[in-house]
Amino acid sequence: MSVRTIRPDPVPARPLRSSAAVLTVSAVNRLSRALGRGSGTVAGGRAGLLVDPGLLAVLADGHLVALVTGTNGKTTTTRLLAAALSPGDGAPAPVSNDTGANMPAGHVAALVGAPAAAVAVLEVDEGYLGRVITETAPEVVVLLNLSRDQLDRIAEVRMLVDRWRTALAGLTPPVAGARGTVVVANADDPMVAYAASTAPEVHWVGAGQVWHEDAVGCPACGGRIEFAPDGRWACDRCAFARPDVVADVEGSDLVLADGARLPIRIALPGQFNRANAAMAAVAAAPVLVATGQARADTGLSTALDRLGGVTEVAGRFSVISRGGNPVRLLLAKNPAGWTAIFDLLDETGDPDAAIVLSVNARTADGFDTSWLWDVPFERLAGRSVVATGERRLDLAVRLRYAEVDHAVVDGPTAALDHAVSRAPEGTVVEFLGNYTAFADLRRAL
Amino acid sequence: MTAGSGRLTVAVVYPDLLGTYGDGGNGLILARRASWRGIDVDLLQAPSDRPLPAADVYTIGGGEDGPQVRAATTLHEEGTLAERVAEGAVVLGVCAGFQLIGRSFPDAVDRPQEGVGLLDVTTTKGTGPRAVGELIAVPVPDAPRTATGERLPRLTGFENHGGVTRVGPGAHLLAHVERGVGNGGGDGSEGAWCGRVVGTYLHGPVLARNTALADLLLGWALAPPGSPPGAAEVLEPLGDHEELALRAERLEAVDASPGAGWRGRLARIRGPR
Questions:
Q1: A108 with A243, same domain?
Q2: Is the CB of A396 less than 8 angstroms away from the CB of B245?
Q3: Domain containing residue A392
Q4: Which chain A residues are within 8 Å of B162, Cβ to Cβ?
Q5: Which candidate from A216, A400, A401 shows the least CB-CB separation from B17?
Q6: For residue A324, what is the domain's CATH number?
Q7: Which of A181, A191, A204, A256 could form a disulfide with A187 if both were Cys (CB 3.0 to 4.6 A apart)?
Q8: Do residues A105 and A194 both lie within one domain?
Q9: Scanning every residue of chain B, which has its alpha carbon at the shortest distance from the alpha carbon of A368?
Q10: A195 in the same domain as A161
């Protein structure tokens, strides 16, 4: 990876309109907090964008920006990348939309008041990638994976792929002395590979992809993607195939193209988090080198060392105590995510642990719960399962046909208490919620 | 049942291409509802790179534009589905699966593609916004009746499509839209049927919320050989309290939502067009 020096452009004086917009963001956030309506970050960002629709570009100007997007792992990878880019020597830590507010209002909120020298690590909703690239001129764009999620809003995975292709085709590659964009993309996901193939500079990572159900039809020609057991894939009709990678995730190691192995030692559980860590490290390494925080040969190991200490991400993977039992809080939003979490339960959990499942179907979750039928709930057979959330009846019917015994309880804390009261003393109870169901539980605790 | 085997075979058609919207659940629901009644069932996931297996019931789900074209081409070329339907097999097509068992449907760039031709319906691309949301439809009086001769209750599900499907003289309307868009095109219709072939825009999956329809399809598949097409075996009830609770909750949620009045009617009139 080439060394380059990144000097932020001098920040020009802000136009009056943008200054007014910044004041609006702060005022709305103060008001929102005073009214007890939460931290107000999104409300403030929205208000600011109303005053100045170009506010994100104004705020991002002068910052080194890294974007993270994909269907699953965005929030975690953003957190890991921010950790990898934290100098920890008194220099400003990266600013980040670390609560998962991943549309422009959330980006504005994260950037308002950011120290001039701070790096910005931004999680981006899949549907907003093009706009956010245009407005923030990022140095790094991380593309994790693409699978079915919120189909009522996104409609089709392939439509999203086409929009990414257009957005990424407009990037400028980094060349000596000038700013440009490196894309770090998961080579194991054909949808990501097809999208990223329009970008001028891509560092491909073999991060793995358990979920292939949305990628059987070749996005390039409509042929059939064949997956080999070793993870390689190719279309049976055209030349589209897995690109050559700079690094591969093999178990708990990151294996570089020259054969060197770096251990991925992280506090977060599960293989998908090792994949997230690998993506974050490959994205961080050139930035660390360019900013003098590491040498060309130590960028990756420095990044991995720094991100290894992250223990939870906005409450996800955290363990709380309830009625004498530890409760692990897990979030999954779509079939690929739930499948990965079931893998995590098999890998790290007690096979008899009681499980609370909580599903809502609000705007942020998608209104259509049909995806529950793509989740392999059959894997929970034999466990004690409690269904809750606003769409607990959808869950109950799904569990009935999976032949998984279950109780249905209204309210996430009541459901948790129901599970805890029936679990042997001291045993772990696993709580799995989708996006707003997870937030509901954390608020209730 | 599959000739001579004494078992019921349910096949989910091309889950690798048409598995996007959870409609594979329809196959699972049919299989479980048969096995809970003591009937031996094989539930087959039939991938697109292998010959379509012989089955008594085929469920075909929703999918994206590209895979939909590939599925239609493959089904048409290999011909098993049309042969099996001629022999009395039951087919449930949902969304893209509904469109592709018709005469023609549009691909991603709006070129008409030939369908499998099991139903006399023709789909074109709507010019309005995609139809996305809860859909409620009331079966028309001459829609298929249950095994005991009753009308099917209201159908509930979730639609997500941009097509307008017109029902030709060789097929029948399934239902009239009460909430949502359905077939689009302004006539307020939803779905189509002919013989033992049923098409609908309802996801959810449709059979999870509409167990009467599930049991009607099963009843057709279990009717003795040589029965007239509309004859259905009477099946013992399964209780279904969880399905009925879900159904009631969904119907109530839609009735209570703001689109229940003139807005909803306007959306139906406008449709995807």
A1: yes
A2: yes
A3: 319-444
A4: 155
A5: A216
A6: 3.90.190.20
A7: A204
A8: yes
A9: B158
A10: yes
Q: What is the pLDDT of residues B192-209, one digit of tens each?
A: 999 999 999 999 999 999
Rounded Cα distance, A175 and A177, in Å:
6
The verdict on a CB contact (< 8 Å) between B21 and A219 is: no
Q: Catalogue the long-range contacts made by A177-183 (C-beta closer than 8 Å, 24 or more residues apart).
A: A177/A4, A177/A5, A179/A6, A179/A137, A179/A139, A180/A139, A181/A133, A181/A137, A181/A138, A181/A139, A181/A140, A181/A141, A182/A139, A182/A140, A182/A141, A182/A283, A182/A286, A183/A140, A183/A141, A183/A142, A183/A143
What are the start-end ranges of the E strands in A97-241? 120-123, 140-143, 182-186, 202-206, 225-227, 233-235
Count of structural domains, chain A: 2
Q: Which residues of A touch B15 (CB under 8 A)?
A: 213
Are residues A54 and A191 located together in one domain of the fold? yes
User: B4 pLDDT exceeds 50?
Assistant: no
- How far apart, in whole angstroms, are the C-alpha atoms of residue A1 and residue A297? 9
Residue of B12, B41, B158, B238 best to disrupt the A interface, most CBs of A under 10 A: B158
Mean pLDDT of A121-128: 95
In this prediction the pTM is: 0.85
Asked whether residue A294 falls in the same domain as residue A333, the answer is no
Residue A350: the pLDDT is 84
Nearest beta carbon to residue B160 from set A151, A222, A403? A151
Angle subtended at Cα A74 by Cα A68 and Cα A80, rounded to the nearest 5 degrees: 80
Q: Is the model's pLDDT at A443 over the cut of 60?
A: yes
- Cβ pair A224:B48 closer than 8 A: yes
Q: What is the mean pLDDT of residues A124-142?
A: 96
Average pLDDT over residues A74-95: 92
Q: Does A376 touch chain B (CB under 8 A)?
A: no
Cβ–Cβ of A224/B246 closer than 8 Å? Answer: no
* Residue B1 pLDDT grade (very low, low, confident, very high; cuts 50, 70, 90): low
Looking at the fold, whether A354 and A261 belong to one and the same domain comes out as: no
Size of interface A-B (CB pairs under 8 A): 98
Is residue A128, in this structure, part of any structural domain at all?
yes
